[in-house]
């Protein structure tokens, strides 16, 4: 069955009056049950944002098989099976849909200590193109965003290191890190009818990091 509600899912449910559901992204059976349960509760799903992700920063020579599998199972494998499970319901119902994958600038340019993470995000960017191509005849759009370093609880330990933060800022032409709402705006655009002719693309929200 789908995972029991987590503190995060409960906070979201309380804020928006939605069901407090959670899914185990590394388990295809959990994903199928989650999609079926949510579809039953809502009468149908129109939009999906694949935002689950994990990173284990290490020099490549120190990355273990377990590290690699953990990163790929969540970032790429999980996003693939959640997308296909939902798309299957859209195809059965002849219903249009829109998917946005949250990739990363690390999937476009090389960043040290991100071998597993960057490769998984590069795979997600290419997967976006493949799914967009396959599902376009069924009115299912698939796009992605590729953020730079964004100030969140998860990135606090990285961005609070003065030496590392200064080096990263030197690589960003706009000279600052991203804020969560700046990613939200691009995701909302891609999900909306304003982007009804956009599919298979990745928007880099990176302050110019990937220009060079």
TrEMBL record:
Listed EC numbers: 1.1.1.125
Transmembrane segments: none
Alphabetical UniProt keywords: NADP, Oxidoreductase
Keyword Endoplasmic reticulum: no
Matching PROSITE patterns: ADH_SHORT
The UniProt record lists the keyword Plastid: no
Taxonomic superkingdom: Bacteria
Pfam family, one: adh_short_C2
EC category name: oxidoreductase
One MF term in the entry's GO annotations: 2-deoxy-D-gluconate 3-dehydrogenase activity
Family the entry assigns: Belongs to the short-chain dehydrogenases/reductases (SDR) family.
Subunit architecture: Homotetramer.
Protein name: 2-deoxy-D-gluconate 3-dehydrogenase
Organism encoding this protein: Arthrobacter ginsengisoli
């Amino acid at each position: 069955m789908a995972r029991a509600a987590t503190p995060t899912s409960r906070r979201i449910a309380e804020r928006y009056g939605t069901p407090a559901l959670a899914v185990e992204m590394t388990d295809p059976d959990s994903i199928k049950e989650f999609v079926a349960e949510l579809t039953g509760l809502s009468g149908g799903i129109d939009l999906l944002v694949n935002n689950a992700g994990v990173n284990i920063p290490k020099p490549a020579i120190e990355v273990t098989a377990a590290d690699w599998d953990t990163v790929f199972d969540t970032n790429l494998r999980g996003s693939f099976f959640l997308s296909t499970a939902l798309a299957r319901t859209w195809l059965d119902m002849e219903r249009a849909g829109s998917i946005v994958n949250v990739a990363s600038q690390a999937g476009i340019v090389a960043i040290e200590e991100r071998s597993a993470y960057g490769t998984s995000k590069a795979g997600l960017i290419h997967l976006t193109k493949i799914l967009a191509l396959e599902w376009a005849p069924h009115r299912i759009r698939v796009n992605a965003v590729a953020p730079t370093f964004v100030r969140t609880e998860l990135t606090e330990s990285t961005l609070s290191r003065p030496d590392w933060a200064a080096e990263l800022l030197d690589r960003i032409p706009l000279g600052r890190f991203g804020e969560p709402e700046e990613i939200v705006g691009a995701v909302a655009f891609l999900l909306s009818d304003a982007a009804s002719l956009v599919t298979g693309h990745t928007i880099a929200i990176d302050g110019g990091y990937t220009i060079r």
